[in-house]
Write a structure and sequence with these properties.
By secondary structure, this protein is mostly helical. The chain has one domain (about 1-289). The protein has helices at about 1-20, 25-45, 60-85, 85-95, 95-110, 115-130, 140-165, 170-185, 190, 200-225, 225-230, 235-250, 255-289. The two termini are about 30 Å apart.
Length: about 290
């Protein structure tokens, strides 16, 4: 649980660095540095420590590549959303990724979704409407980027759920970072701006905080059930609100707070229902033996 809290705190720190840099740098450039710095430890492990088994893709090379491309686009879209909107509002809108997952699961994995989860999806998007209504005063372009990022986050989770049956997590992550670095490097001659000395620590901060967040998250999932780890995702709204207030003097409007509460409640319903479904399935399996 401590690892999970640390992971979601570091994800917020990464987004803070990205938002600060977005005032003078393209989100493409920020994503490039994030991927480049985060992949350094992997390159060290592979080429210095000799762990070349990480390079081996067992059976799904095209899907590993697709995941990397989607991940790069998702990262840039996420940074764009944070550059256009306050921290707290953007963080809450990104929570809608879990609302897309049941829909995508039905479409791509032929999963069954019951009335509880469909109800949670409808309730969650009602919360988004409350946030983005006239009283919410949230940037329409920012909302578009945030919802697009949430949809891509959900798609990545579906792809990972399938890839996890065939490929190792470290292999998927390695190619995600390396291919993401190459993709974001291509437009650099057209968008890159020479960073000032004051911005260099922020660029390193984006990469290191993102890498640390991924490492802590892997520890959390290795030592606790996924449902428990997912609950700590919502600590991100606390950190995002705090940083937004301290750095940009942003505080969510009442309509945003109400909509955020609805979105978080709908996410909680999905987590509860999935945990209950797993418990029932596990009990049936144990009963057979």
């Amino acid at each position: 649980m401590l690892a999970a809290m640390g992971a979601f705190f570091m994800f917020t720190v990464m987004n803070v660095f990205a938002k600060l840099l977005s005032a003078s740098h393209s989100v493409i450039e920020i994503a490039f540095y994030r991927n480049l710095i985060a992949c350094m430890p992997f390159l060290l492990i592979v080429f210095v420590l000799g762990k070349r088994d990480i390079l081996v893709i067992r059976s799904k090379p095209s899907l590993v590549g697709l995941r990397a491309v989607l991940g790069a686009v998702s990262l840039m879209t996420t940074f764009a959303a944070f550059s256009l909107m306050p921290m707290a509002e953007t963080t809450v809108l990104l929570f809608t990724s879990s609302l897309f997952i049941p829909v995508l699961g039905v479409i791509f994995l032929s999963e069954r979704v019951g009335p509880y989860r469909w109800s949670a999806v409808v309730i969650g998007f009602a919360g988004v409407v409350i946030m983005t209504g006239p009283a919410g005063q949230v940037s329409a372009i920012g909302v578009t980027f945030a919802i697009a990022a949430a949809l891509m986050h959900a798609t990545l989770q579906i792809v990972l759920r399938y890839l996890g049956r065939y490929e190792r997590p470290e292999t998927i992550t390695f190619y995600f970072l390396v291919i993401g670095t190459l993709i974001t490097a291509l437009p650099l001659p057209f968008v890159a701006v020479t960073p000032t000395m004051a911005e260099v620590p922020l660029l390193f901060g984006v990469g290191l905080s993102g890498a640390l967040a991924q490492w802590l998250l892997s520890i959390a999932f290795r030592n606790a059930p996924a449902a428990i780890v997912t609950v700590f995702n919502y600590s991100g709204i606390v950190w995002a609100t705090l940083f937004g207030w301290l750095i940009w003097n942003d505080w969510p409007l009442p309509a945003v707070l109400i909509g955020a509460g609805v979105v978080i409640a709908s996410n909680g319903l999905i987590i509860w229902r999935e945990s209950r479904a797993r418990a029932i399935t596990g009990a049936r399996i144990r009963a057979k033996f």
